[in-house]
Amino acid sequence: MIGLDLRSIILMTGVMGLLLSVVLYFVRLSYPKSIQGIGYWALAPIVFFVAVLLFAGRGRIPDLVSVVGANLLLFSGISLLHFGTQRFFGLAPSYRLWIGICLATVPVLAWFTLVQPSFVARVLIILPIWCGMMLAMALLVWRHGPEIFSTRFTVVVLLLHASVIFLRFMSAWLPLPGEHLLDPSGVQTLYIVTNALMIFALAMGLFLMVSDRLREEAEHSASHDSLTNALTRRALIHACELELARCRRHGRNMALLMLDIDHFKVVNDIHGHQTGDRVLTDFITRITSLLRSADLLGRFGGEEFVVLLPETTLEQACMVAERIRLTVAMPAEGLPPITVSAGVTANCPEDVQVDVLLGRADRALYKAKAEGRNCVAVVGSSGLSTFHQKADAAHPLPLVGVEPERQ
Question: Of 164, 219, 325, 394, most Cβ neighbours within 10 A?
Fold first, then answer.
């Protein structure tokens, strides 16, 4: 390794980083805009490329440019990686902190470059900052990334890179006379080659994180309604099948609510479809706030929704439906008033198919509409329809526990 030309290694690292930047740029163009931060990641290798050009020009261009300017660009590129990671996880980039750190190094580097030149002093200043940046990014990915391979791989790469930088920092305390950036010693060669490998490994980690995010969004789009973010009909039926099978195995309870916004077509005809869309999203927001994390809400049609309530008896489901009805009837600022009709049913031991439960819930909903809408109707396992009388705001029905299990 001692015979390697460090200037060539630095230049090749910059060129390959530039190619990575081109790839990331086209990834940014082709991937959904909801995946943020890729633009910062694409810009960082360009900044690194300019920095390595200046580093490689050490001894051929003024030290103010090849030392101070190059290191400033190095820190700027690392900051861009950090900004991109923050945006990727939906966080606000900490511009002031990182820009302040970058600018604070300029006068110190200028002093040990122009006034009192010392390569070792610059190493002892630059490497702790660089190591801290890598550790901060590793902590960011660890805290906000999902527990999957791409996240853990990226964290490991960042920690390894920080370890390499720290070891190089410790080696700077050793008596190595005449040491400089392009010194072909074993320590400096190993440091530069390892840095190049770590940069490529980090790029791989970022690509993997983006690919996993794209897969997650594709799976989410396939199972969720694009307007309301409720589950699609197919996804909810699948969830109901799984829950019914669990109930049959363990003798548990589950209930279904079928909800329909009353006279929703009138809302669209009078106020327009955009207002109708706002009504739907507000409707979902209100319902979701009343449900537990285990409950599932799906869109079955234009204004028809189904709620799956695990660990819930028929009586409890009626109370939940009534609570939903009263909440929906409350006026919403800037939106036309609406009401909802609800059909309620629950499983029984002989139920094998989800279609049976959905059929009972649909008959209950039809009963509620026939009774004048804005009410809750029930169809029990016996097949007999009973009507759940309306409650008013002054005397609402008792509320069941929404957060704990309803069983």
Answer: 325
